[in-house]
Amino acid sequence: MRSTSRTEAFPAHTPAASQIFTTVLSHGPLTRSEIAARTRLSAAAVTKAVRPLIEAGYLLEDVDEDARQPSLGRPANPVLVDGGRALFIGVKMTGDELIAVLTDLCCRIRVARHVPLTTHDPKAVLASTAALVQELLTEADGFGVRVQGLGIAVSGDVDRAAGVVRYSPFLEWRDVPLAELAAMTTGLPVTVDNDVRALTVAEQWFGAGVGLSDFAVVTVGAGIGCGLVVHGQVVSGAHGVAGEIGHVAIDPAGPLCHCGNRGCVEAIAADSAIVGKVREVTGVQVADAAAALDLAHEGDPGAREVYARAGEAIGRGIATVANLLGPERVIISGEGLAAYDLFAEQIRDAFAAAAFGSAARCDVQTRPLPFEEWARGAAATAIQSFIRSDTY
Ligand SMILES: [Zn+2]
């Protein structure tokens, strides 16, 4: 077992320093005055915070090599993050698979691995996770740089501060102290977060959310999830639950949801809901979401109607987000996008009908993000924990 003493402390001791580093990570290379403008901090504060980060090798000065001047430390030199300075591991857990990536400090994927899950028993899942992390730690040795943290992304109600999975429907877990258990088995500092929130961090830093202060990520597939960024912060809620548009009830007489309520978006538009409804409507015992999708693509009117209804539910869910928070953009992603041609029109129409006033101006985009991107999001949460001085 590896000891956590292998990891080192990040030399940023103030929230401002973490903010500066994150700004350079998303937007760099940037000059100190550009950093000051973006963070609204003083030039003196930026210079003071940047110095130890350069000394410790986390930031590099983009010196003009051709000029060959002793220009180091000149405020006009842009600074950028040295991605090779540290490595991180991100793991996304689904109901039937673990997806793991080894990333650098800029969250670029260096190695990706998948292993199937045959059981949901927490001990067995933890053993598979530890073995996968060990494989990536061995890969990391080849880079000659330490792995500084492990991020694990799980769907459901996850308390990041406590490191506990309160409830994960697909894994059928309740109150599993995952961060503590994974830290014991891997020897790494562990951050556990809701999977959609983790994906939202990656989108905020590197994806379609860069530069936006208010946006949402809506994921469709096994569940219907939503990550929210408000005033530049990923929202976790007072109790670790926020943005649960999957459980916005849109039809009180609708199908029963696993949460105990009726007519939730998830009870109409999640994969299992679609499969169940397609079986009921068409009488064809489709095996899974892929088979249901095939049937609809073959033109079966009953199956197509089920997707149309799912699209309507998703569109109304997105309109609820737009009406409450007025995001600039909503990014729709998730494995359910495979059916997008079957429900895009209904999503658009239902959104337009239910969004109030200027909220309808929100830019709704689709963005296919494979599970490696979700695992990358988990690595981003580990980077976030590493560079933050104030929390977790
Ligand atoms: Zn529900």
From TrEMBL:
This is Sugar kinase. PANTHER family: BIFUNCTIONAL UDP-N-ACETYLGLUCOSAMINE 2-EPIMERASE_N-ACETYLMANNOSAMINE KINASE, ROK (REPRESSOR, ORF, KINASE) FAMILY. It holds the Pfam family ROK. It comes from Streptomyces albiflavescens. Residues 14-69 form the HTH marR-type domain. One of its GO terms (molecular function) is kinase activity. Belongs to the ROK (NagC/XylR) family. Keywords: Kinase, Transferase.
